[in-house]
Design goal:
Elements: H1 2-23, E1 32-33, H2 35-42, H3 46-58, E2 62-65, E3 69-72, H4 77-98, H5 104-119, H6 126-141, H7 147-162, H8 174-190, H9 195-219
Antiparallel strand pairs: 1-3, 2-3
Helix pairs in contact: 1-3, 2-3, 4-7, 4-9, 5-6, 5-8, 8-9
Protein name: GntR family transcriptional regulator
GO molecular function: DNA binding; DNA-binding transcription factor activity
Domain HTH gntR-type: 8-75
Length: 225
């Protein structure tokens, strides 16, 4: 039993090690993950590293190909499209289900984050804006009482981290509109709007970003790693 706990701990350590480097950009899309090298860096066997790779593969952050091995998932235009479409649906549902549990404190917190987002617009940094964007939406969807829907939302956001900055760096003008849409969603929740109104507003907010990227993509190729 002690051995199992130790192995699990090392697997989680390896997971955090790799995941952090994917999130902060040190392991870019297409980066080859050499199990032996990572194991030596962590001073563990390859077993927990392999387990960590399997977890990351299940989350869509890593791919594994025969004769190639594990590598950080590549950004694909269709992957971005499908992720955004799915996230629009599940995050819209999660936000609507959360709405009855959103307190005045939640609303104040969300508005404070949105104001910080507004202040970044003059000296725009896509990565910082994206971080704040997740903080904002998390306030609104984390109270979702359906754990299955919430898990799908988390998976979608995790997948978007692999596509980091693809939206707001590609269509920076969209950030201004996003901040205004945030306030309208808050107003709906604050006014006690019915669940369908909240869900559709949250969904339209997500698809508006997707539409902006697709429109820009028709003029210029989507950035690739």
């Amino acid at each position: 039993m002690q051995t199992e706990r130790s192995t699990e701990s090392k697997s989680q350590q390896a997971y955090r090690f790799i995941r952090t480097r994917i999130d902060d950009g040190r392991y870019v899309p297409g980066y080859r993950l050499v199990l032996g090298a990572i194991a030596r860096e962590l001073d563990v066997s390859v077993v927990p590293v392999r387990e960590a790779i399997r977890l990351l593969e299940a989350e869509g952050l890593v791919t594994f190909e025969r004769n190639v091995g594990a590598q950080v998932a590549l950004i694909k235009e269709t992957e971005y499209l499908h992720t955004m479409q799915t996230l629009a649906l599940v995050e819209g549902a999660a936000t609507a289900l959360s709405a009855p549990f959103i307190s005045p404190d939640h609303l104040a917190r969300a508005r404070e984050i949105n104001e910080r987002m507004r202040r970044t617009l003059d000296d725009f940094e896509p990565s910082r804006f994206t971080e704040l964007n997740l903080e904002f939406h998390a306030v609104l969807f984390e109270e979702c009482p359906n754990p299955h829907i919430l898990d799908l939302v988390h998976r979608g956001w995790n997948r978007m981290k692999v596509l980091r900055d693809s939206s707001f760096s590609f269509v920076p003008g969209r950030a201004h509109e996003s901040v205004e849409e945030h306030e309208r969603i808050l107003e709906l929740i604050e006014a006690g709007a019915d669940a369908l109104q909240v869900e559709l507003a949250a969904r339209r907010h997500r698809t508006a970003t997707l539409d902006a990227v697709l429109a820009a993509q028709s003029r210029h190729p989507l950035p690739s790693p």
